[in-house]
Design brief:
Two copies of one chain form a homodimer. By secondary structure, chain A is of the alpha+beta class. Chain A has 18 helices and 16 strands. Chain A has an eight-stranded mixed beta sheet with strand order 1-5-6-11-10-9-7-8. A five-stranded mixed beta sheet of chain A has the order 13-12-14-15-16, sandwiched between helices. In chain A, strand 15 and strand 16 form a beta hairpin. In chain A, helix 6 crosses helix 12.
Chain lengths: 443, 443
């Protein structure tokens, strides 16, 4: 019988789970210190809740669930697996608006499912770690979100990351000012996205040949896109203001960028922000700031997000301001594993001590001793069978358990316990009441 | 647009999540102290992994996932949502046998999905908290599992629970010895299960009329089933030995029950075990001990489990001993909510202090102050907008946040912060460096 997990899905054995839980606990701790509260939504949503929110390709990647019973025989689906954590949040905000605080700040760490073609580092079930602030258009929100995400990464041991920052209104204004018709913005961005592959001249030529822009305008735009991320933030702001040619909405976007940089300078994101006019982010629902976390020597990002002031309105009818950032747990774990960034304690085996069983008559006493050591706060395993002591000790050693206790007939009579340290081979007799303290001291 | 969660599914708002996480953290902490390690498996399994493992009704309740792309148009399903945590464990043990320790002790706290008709307290997505020990037929396993489950419930504040204990071999032997043909055991147990509804005389009559048993044998069996749970364990053991009429496998089951009671007496389950010959447990995969946790004034149980030495063999081909217990998180939460069993801190709002914003010029400084307080370990919210201070303070109060900081022009000049305690109304000026200590002391 096939015992593999389903394609693109993973089993997490204990060491994996401990590493995952460590990262999630740091994320939760930091987000809580920023005043965010936990939210959880079901893995399964009504199919209408999800369809049409992620673009055509997104719709195709949604796992759909068959109707139950007779109805299922038609092959129709009425439910679907959660595809991200943002659309469920928008639904929750619309559903519980009256019960939620005016400024609802939530974090959510849950798996999502996408029927992508599985490939190295890309899975069909993966966790997202989202933090979002609902109900305010203030740029304090952006600064706090970027500060919180930066603090998470610092706490995990990342030091050299940067946060690429752009603004949908600035981006749109820039394209319009350059002469790209609004209806052609998507096409122009797809072409501009090829900078890494075909170079500035190739992109300029393509923009011109597709009649998206006059060649001089195209060259100017491409030059800004190509160098933006490397210039100082002040230089980028100046350049954007010039190139915006008075485009009003675009200039408001530039002002917001300037404010976000200034406010973030008062947060833990200080010095991390790189204005990058070429950053576009795929999802269609962004309306203002957009950001993405970049780490040197890593293609792709560790996370990203932005402002989406109109998504909640798709559920509620009236607009509710919203902004958030999502950290990619799986990528963070890949990098941390590859770079050995976990504190040693995270890989530790579960038990600190294993209680051996001397013979069939002492089984109950072994269970009792284990109970005493647990009450004293230790993580304790009990060897279940009455195998030879040597075999029991060898098992503890193979499990990486540091100490074993041995209580033979003599020890029982004297109320003593022999404690063997498997890393030194030393064995010591001591009163039963001293065992926990001894192990804690030498463990 | 419909903003409800899907039928039978639930959104968990922050207070719900905090209560759930509290219970799960107690469970994880206790199980770790018993030497169990965490395992996680995917929500989605290949459909063949699940089908045929839960009986006919189980199969019907499995949520099936449509094939993707063109293939999905046939209405065929190739994947399914996890239905319990035991079958995935058996698959994992078979798949990773070489990498796992000889005695694999794991706990797993994850949601499962069942297409049951939703009703009060019964959901289509719910968490199970399973703990299982693989690889030993020793009854130490049972004693340790029952001790661990008892300790979890004690730590959560349950005091009056009992653990009903029976054994599949004892139950089978008893029926056979009474004269029920093996093929009729299922039918007899269904009839015996009606004791609460139709009473001893009704069940006796039905057993006889269905020709399952002679009337005298039926009356004797019914009497044992009706009083078993109330008699002392020693009395039940005596009675079982008599009624077993020399049935060998049945008597081995009785001996195991006796040993489990004796060993559990050395564990935290001491005094909780009630031998109950009427306990049958629905699932077909149990092969030895079976148990169920009962709380007074609560129909149904808080959890249950047993030994299933043959399930892993369905995946691996060769038998691997296994025993486990599953706690019902949702029922535990229902009881704890109804009886007010949560420590007050679990319901606490996220932030300990809210930083207000004096005016547009001090926004960055507010973010900076929040950062300082967070570095000092506090959970800190920042009001995002430059509303009137009175409105900001009112908001903090409505959120149950105890302290707000106010830094006006004068305070800025003097390097001071005004801290207002919203539960006393008192406001105090202090040096900026003292704020965190003050809040921690008076919070």
């Amino acid at each position: 019988m096939n015992t593999n997990p389903a394609r693109g899905m993973r089993d997490f054995l204990p060491d994996d789970v401990r590493r995952r839980q460590y990262v999630m606990s740091v994320i939760a701790d930091v987000y809580q210190r920023y005043g965010f509260e936990p939210l959880e939504t079901p893995a399964v949503e009504n199919i209408e809740t999800l369809m049409g929110k992620y673009g055509e390709e997104g719709d195709r990647l949604i796992f759909r669930i068959l109707k139950r019973g007779e109805e299922g025989k038609t092959g129709e689906a009425d439910l679907a697996l959660r595809y991200d954590l943002t659309v469920p949040l928008a639904r929750v905000v619309a559903e519980y608006r009256e019960r939620l605080p005016k400024f609802f700040k939530r974090y959510q760490v849950q798996p999502v499912w996408r029927a992508d073609r599985p490939q190295k580092g890309r899975f069909r079930e993966f966790y997202q770690c989202d933090v979002d602030a609902i109900g305010s258009t203030s740029l304090v929100v952006e600064a706090e979100l970027l500060g919180a995400a930066a603090e998470v990464l610092e706490r995990l041991g990342f030091s050299a990351f940067t946060i690429r920052l752009n603004h949908r209104k600035a981006l749109g204004g820039l394209l319009e000012a350059a002469g790209v018709a609004v209806a052609k913005h998507g096409e122009a961005l797809i072409t501009l996205d090829k900078l890494d592959k075909v170079g500035p001249d190739g992109v300029t030529a393509e923009l011109a040949s597709r009649a998206l822009l006059a060649e001089a305008d195209a060259a100017n735009l491409v030059q800004l896109f190509a160098t933006g991320g490397a210039a100082t933030n002040d230089d980028v702001l100046r350049r954007l203001r010039t190139d915006m040619k008075g485009h009003e909405a675009g200039l408001r976007g530039v002002s917001e960028l300037e404010d976000i940089v200034r406010l973030s300078d008062a947060s833990r994101a200080r010095g991390r922000i790189r204005l990058d006019p070429s950053l576009a982010r795929g999802l269609s629902y962004y309306t203002g700031s957009i950001f993405e976390i970049a780490v040197p020597d890593l293609t792709g990002s560790l996370g990203g997000g932005g402002r989406y002031d109109e998504l909640v309105g798709m559920f509620l009818g009236s607009q509710v301001a919203a902004c958030g950032i999502s950290l990619g747990l799986e990528r963070i774990l890949v990098v941390m594993n590859a770079r050995g960034m976990f504190p040693p304690v995270v890989g530790a085996t579960a038990a600190q001590v294993m209680v051996t069983i001397w013979n069939a008559d002492t089984v109950a006493d072994a269970i009792r001793l284990a109970g005493e050591l647990r009450t004293a706060g230790l993580r304790v395993d009990v060897y279940p069978d009455t195998d030879k002591i040597g075999k029991q000790v060898k098992y503890a050693d193979s499990r990486g358990i540091r100490f074993v206790t041995i209580v033979g007939t003599d020890e029982t009579t004297r109320g003593e316990v022999a404690v063997k340290n498997l890393s030194t081979g030393e064995q010591q007799l001591m009163p039963r009441a001293d065992v926990a303290t001894f192990i804690r001291k030498h463990g």
